[in-house]
Design goal:
Helices cover about 35% and strands about 15% of the residues. It contains seven helices and seven strands. It has one domain: Spore Coat Polysaccharide Biosynthesis Protein SpsA, Chain A, CATH 3.90.550. A hairpin with a 5-residue loop joins strand 5 and strand 6. The longest helix has 20 residues. A seven-stranded mixed sheet has the order 3-2-1-4-6-5-7, sandwiched between helices.
Length: about 210
């Protein structure tokens, strides 16, 4: 497949996902929210016409929400987020994919159409990037590996998007931006969605 989508996820372990959210919501409910986001991300991704890859934080999780027959699974490798993403891109490019996009699992506003748009942009541009409202990005797409995009960044801060754009410009490659979306990291982010209502409805039906 020419197009490939990488999804970066954390293994679903209580106390190890969405730690900023957990400070207000508690570990148990936060884990429920994260599992909901994983299901949402899976559903959005699977509708996109591409090869699908999941890279886990600690170990490959078999028979989870990401169907083993639809998603190729690996473990993230590297000291920081930048190195882990760069290694994931390299692995997927080495498998023969020509246009590769990476997303996380915490963007409840992401739609399949936006993934399709990113791959379409890569027909014309070297890089496609989806800025997040918190100063990071929710999607990064490339037609070839550009290592400097992943190095010397303060990951998890509001400068990541701007610093990444600066690296792209220094590499003298073309790029196009997608629509700005919100990542879900805090209680305030969560309350702007209907996720808690969905979870309450699921609990009442059990």
């Amino acid at each position: 497949m020419e197009n490939a989508l990488i999804i970066f996820v954390r293994n679903t372990e209580k106390g190890k996902v969405k730690t900023r959210l957990a400070k207000d919501l508690g570990d148990d409910k936060t884990l429920e929210v994260y599992k909901f986001l994983l299901q949402y991300t899976r559903d959005v991704a699977i509708s996109c016409n591409c090869s699908h890859f999941v890279f886990y934080s600690s170990y490959v999780h078999v028979n989870d929400v990401f169907d083993d027959d639809l998603f190729t699974k690996f473990v993230q490798e590297g000291e920081d987020l930048g190195e882990r993403m760069m290694n994931a891109f390299k692995k997927v490019f080495d498998l023969g994919c020509r246009k590769v996009c990476i997303i996380g699992s915490d963007c409840y506003e992401l739609q399949t159409e936006m993934l399709n748009e990113a791959f379409e942009k890569l027909n014309k541009y070297d890089v496609a990037i989806g800025p997040a409202s918190d100063g990071g990005y929710y999607l990064l797409g490339m037609k070839r590996l550009i290592p400097e995009v992943f190095s010397k960044k303060d990951w998890g801060t509001s400068s990541v998007f701007d610093d990444t754009i600066e690296s792209i410009k220094k590499a003298r490659v073309s790029y196009s931006e997608l629509t700005v979306l919100n990542d879900l990291d805090t209680m305030e982010d969560l309350l702007e969605t209907n996720i808690l209502t969905h979870l309450e409805e699921d609990d009442s039906q059990e």
